[in-house]
């Protein structure tokens, strides 16, 4: 079985055709994803704890045996329904304007969000122009038996590459994403990711990435991210005002 080496250390090296972006600019562009700060108060800490409990609940429900005790399942379903109603009765973000902390992707993303029970959550870190990440996918993400569903494989790449596009010096939207499954991605094992910008042309940034489990390549991806024209005009107006 073939193995791969991690991407070389490029913390001080830019790929041909990719601008060298100052470290402070990279940090600002990536701040919505990483680093994940400590909760800013007891309420947010409790929400993070609730999200983690919900992740465990989702996995437990996924693995509950339909051939087991039907009465017990019905009883637990009643309890969970009551609990969902209790949570729904609490103050909701729908009732107020979200603040800056609420809007950060490290808080709300379905892949990395500490407060989102859909997130594994994936852990991200910056290594110069390279973004590295890792996650462990539990049974809730299962497609083929014992393997991660291909849609989640693609979504994880989109998240990591979305952060990595910061290496172009700006952020845009996913225009296309191509994922090649080399092997199936395992459940319950650490999956590592690396992504970096490989080319920049105007509003466009091309990003490549790959994932591996235990040093074995399981998938790779390439994508194009495009900064909306309206935001480019805002960038130009801001730069002109600062000149």
Automatic annotation (TrEMBL):
Pfam families the record matches: 4HBT
This protein's record includes keyword Transferase: no
Compartment(s): Cell projection, Ruffle membrane; Cytoplasm; Membrane
Domain Thioesterase: 146-210
InterPro entries named in the record: HotDog_dom_sf, THEM4/THEM5_acyl-CoA_thioest, Thioestr_dom
Region feature (Disordered): 1-22
UniProt protein name: Acyl-coenzyme A thioesterase THEM4
Organism whose genome encodes this protein: Yinghuangia soli
């Amino acid at each position: 079985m073939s193995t791969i080496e991690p991407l070389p250390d490029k913390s001080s090296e830019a790929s041909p055709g990719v601008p060298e972006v100052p470290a402070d600019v990279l940090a600002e562009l990536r701040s919505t994803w990483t680093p994940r700060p400590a909760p800013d108060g007891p309420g947010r800490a409790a929400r993070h704890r609730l999200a983690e409990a919900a992740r465990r609940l989702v996995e437990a429900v996924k693995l509950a045996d339909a051939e087991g005790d039907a009465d017990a399942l019905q009883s637990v379903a009643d309890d969970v329904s009551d609990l969902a109603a209790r949570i729904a009765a609490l103050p909701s973000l729908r009732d107020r304007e979200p603040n800056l902390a609420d809007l950060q992707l490290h808080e709300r993303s379905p892949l990395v969000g500490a407060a989102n029970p859909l997130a594994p959550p994936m852990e991200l870190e910056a290594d110069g122009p390279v973004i590295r990440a890792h996650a462990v996918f539990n049974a809730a993400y299962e497609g083929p038996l014992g393997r991660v569903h291909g849609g989640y494989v693609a979504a994880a790449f989109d998240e990591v590459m979305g952060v990595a596009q910061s290496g172009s010096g700006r952020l845009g939207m996913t225009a296309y994403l191509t994922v090649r499954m080399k092997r199936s991605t395992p459940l319950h094992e650490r999956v590592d990711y690396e992504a970096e910008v490989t080319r920049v042309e105007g509003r466009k940034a091309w990003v490549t990435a790959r994932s591996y489990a235990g040093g074995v390549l399981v998938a790779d991806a390439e994508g194009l991210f495009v900064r909306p024209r309206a935001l480019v005009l805002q960038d130009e107006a801001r730069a002109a005002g600062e000149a």
